[in-house]
Amino acid sequence: MSMSCDFSLLRQYALLVFIIFAAEIVLGILVAIYKDDLKGDLVSMMRRQVLFEYNTTASIANRTNRITTTWNNMQMKLECCGTLGPPNYRYSTWYNHTPGNSGIWVPMSCCVLKNSDPDDPQPLNFEQCQVDAFQYKHAVESQFLHTRGCYWQLLWLAETNKWIFIGVIIGCAAVQIVVFQLIAFVFSCCMMSCLRKKQTEYPWYDEEEDE
User: Fold this and answer.
1) In this prediction, what percent of the chain has a pLDDT beyond 70?
2) CA torsion angle for 82, 87, 89, 95 (degrees, to 10)?
3) Where are the transmembrane segments (predicted)?
4) Which of 25, 31, 80, 185 is 20 to 30 A distant from 209 in Cα terms?
5) pTM confidence score
6) Domain residues of the chain, as ranges?
7) Which residues on adjacent β-strands are paired with residue 111?
8) CA 142/CA 192 separation, integer angstroms
9) 101 or 61: which carries more pLDDT confidence?
10) How far is Cα 145 from Cα 125, in angstroms, rounded to an integer?
């Protein structure tokens, strides 16, 4: 391979590293600009999952459903229920599969529990939990039912820990960009400078390699 070819490849490599670096900066700016749109997409996704994909009941043998297990875990750990609150389940596939007149208004994981098994939640007081869900009013507290929606709990979690998230993101970006990409970019520029210098000092080198 000739020296001019090596120079061309290094130049392409340096350009590629620079494009990746610029793309990451643009991505960060776009996330900051469109964060409200991202929130709307999150609400839509969560609503869709509650309405159509959460479907574990005592009468449905689907306790390994990934969406169901994820929601059970989230509702248990964040102490929340539904996307925006307990009423979100009333028009869901899950609710339509519950036995008629069963008095079940929300999944067991929406209740205050006495265990921590997402596949088999055990309410502290099942009857009162369901009564509170049926009589639910916005912002009313309950000793046996999680009354806040999981979307609001996720926003609260993100706001509470935003500086930790920002620190982690900046740290990861620093490792990836500063330590690797910028060093690689500088190294490739140095190599191109070195090759250009050699081409100037030994213009006959490429001709001999081509022969």
Assistant:
1) 55
2) 150
3) 12-34, 163-187
4) 185
5) 0.59
6) 1-33+161-211, 53-159
7) 145
8) 69
9) 101
10) 9
